[in-house]
Amino acid sequence: MKTEVHTQVSAEELAQTFDESEHAPVDLSGYAFEDWLALGLFWAMALAVFVQFFTRYVLNDSFAWTEEIATNLNVALVFVGSAMCVRMNRHIQVDFLYRYLSPGLGRVLATLIDIIRVSFFVYGAFLIWRYMSIVGDEQMTTVALPKNLSYAFVFIGFVLMSFRSVQVAVANWRRGYSVLERPEAFDAPVVAET
Length: 194
Fold this sequence. Notes:
flat, mainly alpha
């Protein structure tokens, strides 16, 4: 069994580990609209869950609306967050078959997958839009808000996924390959610690 060795660190050495002059400036340019929307939805959901916890366990009298709001915010977060995954090619994909296909057949199949993905998201947005027109006047159970508010986020998520999947398809066509054909080209480079 290995013994852990704890090295004494002075206060100055500890303070230097937090020195920001060594780090690169913060770059937020890689984040898109859906990233910020998902961040806002996450913190709104966290606040609703905190209020639920506080009122239930501290005040011993929970607010009923917090659970419904947190649930609806979670659904919104999932669909808006899915647009992030489409943009960054992070959804689950099976690329095993592409290892055994010829490059030409792999390119045709990957293009077909791009078309199917775009069609699926557009059709999903259409279905949600139709559903929203059906339940247009219904109210949520515990809050005097329309149910369409929660479905609107699902619709926004599908619209964003449609838009991002078109962008990904165009990028794949211009590049000549997709993540399915060459997954190693999409791996993030490993940065060595200095």
